[in-house]
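Record pair follows.
FIRST:
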Amino acid sequence: MTQNNDRIMSSNFADAEKVSVMLGGGTVPFRLPAGALSYLDRQQYISSMEILAYYPSINLMIFGDEHSCLWAKGKRRLIAFQGGFVDITEPTKATVIGESTVGLFQSCVFNSQLKKWIRVVAHQMPLTPGTQQYPRGKYHEEYAKKSINDPGFRGIKTYDVTNPEKAELLNEFETGRIGFGVHCPFYDGGRYGYLACGWDDQLRMESTERVYSNGLMIVDMSDPANVKEVSRWWVPGQRLDEEELYRATYPFAGDQCSWTCNRTPCIVPVRVEDGGTVGYGGWGHFGMYVHDLSDIRNPKVYGKVTHPLEAIGGIPYHHVVPVNADPARYPRLQNLVIAVPESLESDCREPFHTSYIIDVKDPANPRIIGLFPRPKPHPDAPYKDFAMARGRFSSRVTQHWIAPGKARSDVVALSYLNAGLRLFDISDPTEPREVAYFVPPRDGDIDNYMSWRRGTTEAVFIEWDRNLIWLSTHAGLYCLSAPFLGPPVLQAIPVTQWSVPHVNVGWDG
C-alpha cells in the first residue's frame, strides 16, 4: 500500500464510524455465558497425577520470572518467588525463607564469571484490570490516573543472593520515570539481559489492563552492580507517533481490547557472546517475533508469526519458550517454540485462545504446526466447559526453561487459570495430547469479584531430575507427580545438570 493510500485510510477512519451499525462497535467484556455457576466449586479433580504434598499457608503468585527461578547448592534447593524463597530440599517439608527482594518477576541464576547467584527483580507501574467499578480498566480516566501517578520504582533491581538469607542490593536501574517500567526480565547469567520494558508514555496499548505498553530493552549485565542500556526495539506502528502506519497495518487497531505489547522479552537459546543471533519474543496480538541479534546494538527481526484466525482480546503469545531437544532422542522436536496465550477477562467474556507449537527452523518464516486441545472438565464437575466455572479460562505459562536435570522434551506442562494444571505429550508436535491434569479446589468468595477473577492456578515448575511438579495457586503450594514423568524422588539430592547446559555453569563450586 502506498504512503498516499495509507493517509487516505487514516483520514477515512472517522467517516467509516459514522455509517456503522453501532457507534464505537462492540468490544470485550462480553456478556456472562449462559450456564455459568453462581458459586465457586470447592471440589478438586485429578487424573493420572498424585498429590505428594500440599502447603495451604504458602500462597505464591508466581515462581521467579517463568524462565529461571531455582537456587541450588549441594543438596539444597530454593525456588525464588515474589518476596522470598521456598526451600524444597525435602519436598514433603517445604518452608519459606523471607528476604527483601519484593517485586513481581524475578530471575535467579548463577553468574559463572562472578561465581555468584544473581537475582533480577522487575518493577512496574500498577496494572488496570477490569473491576466491577471500572469494567473498562484504563479507559476510566480516574482509574488510569491512579496508575500513572503511582510513585513506585520502575525498572529492575539486581541482588547478590549467594547467601539467600541475606540478599545484597547491587543496583537500581530505572528504565524511565514516565514509562510502564519492567514487567518481565530474561537473564540467564550471561552478559546481556532482556527486558519487556516501557521506557516512556508513548508506547501504544489497546488493552484495558495497562495504561502504557512495553517494547524490548536490552541491557549489559556483565557487571550486575552497574547495569547499562544497550539497545531498544519496538514493533513498527507501536509508538503513538506512528498512527498512520498502525491504522493501515493492524486489523485490531482501535479495538480497545487487544494486547499491543511485548509480554515475553527475548528468550535467547544461545547467548550472543557465544555466537547466538536468535531470540524469541511474545508480543501479544502483534505475534511471536524471531529477533535478529546479529548486531546487539541494533536489533532487527528475522520473521514473525500469528495465527490467521487470531481473535481479539486476551494476550496471544503471552509466554514463549524454546524446546530443548536432544537430536538423537527427539528428532521430531527440533527447532520448536511453545507459544502460550493468557486470557484477561473472567468467565470467557472474550474469545478463547489456544497454545501453539511453532516450527522455527527457518527464522524468516516461522510456522504454526500444532494446536493444543481445549481442556475439558472432569465428568463429575458441575459444568460442561470451563467457561462456566467462573474466573479466567486459559493457559498462562508452561514449565520453566531453566530447571534441574535433563528436560523431557516431549512434555509440556501448562498452567490454566481456572482449569488447573494440564500435562501434554508433544512427541507428535502436530497433535499435542493431554495425558494428565489436576484442578485444585477454587478459592475466593463469589461475592468478592477480585478474589476469584483470575482463577486459582498460576505457575508450574518441574524438577526433571526428581520427577516432581510444583504448582503455585492462590490457595497454596502443591507438589505433584505423574506416571508419565516417572517415579518421584522425595529425598534430597544434589543437582548434577541443568535443562539448559550452558546456564548455571559452576554452581556446584
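SECOND:
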Amino acid sequence: MKTLIIGDLHGRSIWKDIITQHNNIERIIFLGDYFDSFDISAAEQIHNFKEIIKLKESCTYEIILLIGNHDHHYLKEVGNTGTSGYQHNNALEIITIIEQYKKYLQVAYKFENILCTHAGVGKVFLDYVFGKQGWSIENIDTELNALFKIQPRAFIFSGFNPNGDDIGQTPLWIRPKSLKMDSVDFKKKLIQVVGHTQMIQIPSTASTDGRYYFIDTLGTSKEYLVVTAGKIDLFALTKHHTVLPR
C-alpha cells in the first residue's frame, strides 16, 4: 500500500501536483492547517479546502484529514484563541465551511507503527486527559479522536511557553524539542509524523533517532513522505516532477 503524507498547506494547492506524480496511491494523509495564510486570500483557502473535500468524497482511495491549530480555532465550540493568523474579517465564512465538514476532521491517525498528528503526542498530555492508566499505544488514535469529538477544547493551547515548547502541550501545539523529550516512553514503539513547526528540510533520521519526521516543509523544500510496505521515503516536488532527495 502506498501512503502519501502531506504537511501543512495553509491554502496551497501543491497537494494536487504531488498526487499527479504518483501511481497506485491507496491512502493520503493531510496533517492539517488548511487555513491562515499571509499571502493566499481567504477565498482561495476556502476553495482549496473544498477541493480536498471533493477529493475525499469522490476518490476510490482513503483520504485522512487531520486538524491543525489553524483550523481548530474556527470550530464553533472553540472560537478565536488568539492564535496568530486568525482571519477576523473572513472568520464567519471559514467557520461555516469548517462546521459543514468537521465530520471529516480528526486529531490522529495510526497505521502500522506510524502515528500521524498535526504537532505530535506526548505522554504528559495523555496522562493529563486520560489518566496514567487510561490510554494505550494500541488505541492512542481512537482515544484521541473520541476526545476530540466530545471535547474539542481539550486541544487548545496550554503551557507557559509562548511558542508552545512545553512538554504537556496538546497534539495541535507541541514543538519538536518538547515532543522528543516527552514521548520517550513509547518512542521505541511508534514513529511520529507531524507538521506544525516549519522546517527548511525534513530533518535527517539520524538527528531524530528515526522515530520522528517533521514535515512542515511545503513552503520551503516542498518535501513530503511516501510510505510503501512500511518503508518511509522522503520526496520533494520540483517544478516538473518528484525526486527522492538526500
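COMMENT: The mean pLDDT is 94.
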